[in-house]
Specification:
alpha+beta, Glutaredoxin, seven-stranded mixed beta sheet, 15% strand
Length: 297
C-alpha cells in the first residue's frame, strides 16, 4: 500500500519537473467511495477559498420564473411600485458618516438596491453578486447605481465585523455602502420583512422593475437576478449570458496563466479518482495525497 501511495504522489508538474511527496499509508479498514465524490472532495479543497468564490459559469434566466422554496415571502416594494425616499448613513467613501438618500443618488440611472442583514454568509455572497454585476456594467453603456444598505439595530455590529471589507466591496462596483436609520426593520415605507436576510430591488426612474427575496441570503449570483438586470438595462438575456461567459473565460485564462501547475493538478485529481473507484484508496486518502502534492500557499 505504501508503494502504491508513493506512486500516486509522484506526478509531473510545471512542464516536466516531478513531485515525490509521500503520505502515510491509510488503514486497511477504510473503504472506497465513488470516484465522482472523491474528485469533488479534492476539487472543493482547491476551489472553495474566499478569494476564489463565485467562479462558476453564470446563467441568465427569465426573472418572471423566479420562485422561492416553500411559502412565498414578500419583502419591500413590488414591481411597478414607486420607491419612497429614505435616509441611510454612509459607512465608506468620501461621504462616510453622512446621511444620504439612495434613491436621490441614483437619479435616472438604473438602480440595484441590496437590503442586507448582518449575516456573514450573505455578505460573503455579495462579493460574487457584485462581481457579476460589474462584468455586466463594463459591457453596457448604462451607468448602474448599486447601493448596499445594511439593516441592523446596532450599527457597531456592522462596522466592527465588516468595515475591513467595505473598500473591497466598493472596488467591485458598489457605489454606496450604508446602514439604515431605521434599524433591522429598514425604512418603514418599504415594508421589508425582518425575517429575510436579503432583499434585492431593481428599479429605474424610481420605480421597481423586479423584487427578489432571499431568506438566507445569496451564496452566489442567482440566474433570475441576472435576468432581471438584463431586463433593467434593456438587453437580451442571451446577450448578457455571452458577456458573463466571455468574462469567465478570460478569468479562467488568467488563473491558468497564474498557476503553472494547473494541468498537473487536473491530471492528479483524475488519477486519484480512478484509484478511489478501484477501491485502492479512500476519499480521505485522496484528499491527504492531494494536499501533500499541492500544499496551499
Amino acid at each position: 500500500m505504501k508503494t502504491l501511495l508513493t506512486t500516486i504522489a509522484t506526478v509531473l508538474v510545471a512542464g516536466g519537473t516531478t513531485l515525490a511527496q509521500q503520505s502515510s499509508p491509510p488503514t486497511e479498514a477504510k473503504r472506497a467511495e465513488p470516484a465522482t465524490e472523491a474528485a469533488t472532495s479534492v476539487r472543493e479543497r482547491e476551489t472553495h477559498k474566499p478569494q476564489e468564490y463565485g467562479r462558476g459559469k453564470l446563467a441568465v434566466k427569465d426573472p418572471a420564473d423566479f420562485r422561492m422554496e416553500g411559502k412565498q415571502i414578500f419583502s419591500g416594494p413590488q414591481s411597478g411600485e414607486k420607491l419612497p425616499p429614505f435616509r441611510a448613513t454612509s459607512l465608506a467613501g468620501d461621504n462616510k458618516d453622512k446621511e444620504l438618500n439612495p434613491i436621490e443618488l441614483a437619479g435616472s440611472n438604473p438602480q440595484i438596491l441590496l437590503f442586507q442583514d448582518e449575516s456573514g454568509v450573505a455578505i460573503r455572497g455579495l462579493f460574487g453578486v457584485a462581481k457579476a454585476i460589474r462584468k455586466i456594467e463594463r459591457k453596457t453603456e448604462q451607468d448602474l447605481h448599486i447601493a448596499c444598505v445594511f439593516l441592523c439595530d446596532d450599527a457597531e455590529t456592522i462596522t466592527s465585523q465588516f468595515a475591513s471589507v467595505f473598500q473591497n466591496m466598493r472596488e467591485r462596483g458598489i457605489d454606496l455602502i450604508a446602514i439604515s436609520k431605521d434599524g433591522r426593520d429598514g425604512p418603514g415605507a418599504y415594508g421589508l420583512n425582518r425575517t429575510v436576510s436579503q432583499t434585492i430591488i431593481l428599479a429605474r426612474d424610481g420605480k421597481v422593475t423586479r423584487n427578489f427575496v432571499f431568506p438566507q441570503g445569496l451564496l452566489q449570483s442567482d440566474p433570475h437576478l441576472m435576468g432581471g438586470i438584463a431586463e433593467l438595462i434593456g438587453e437580451e438575456r442571451e446577450t448578457v449570458a455571452r458577456w458573463l461567459a466571455g468574462a469567465a473565460e478570460g478569468d479562467a485564462r488568467m488563473r491558468r496563466n497564474d498557476d503553472p501547475q494547473s494541468a498537473a493538478k487536473a491530471a492528479f485529481r483524475e488519477k486519484l479518482g480512478e484509484f478511489v473507484k478501484d477501491g485502492k484508496i479512500t476519499r480521505e486518502d485522496a484528499g491527504e495525497l492531494y494536499r501533500a502534492a499541492f500544499p496551499e500557499r
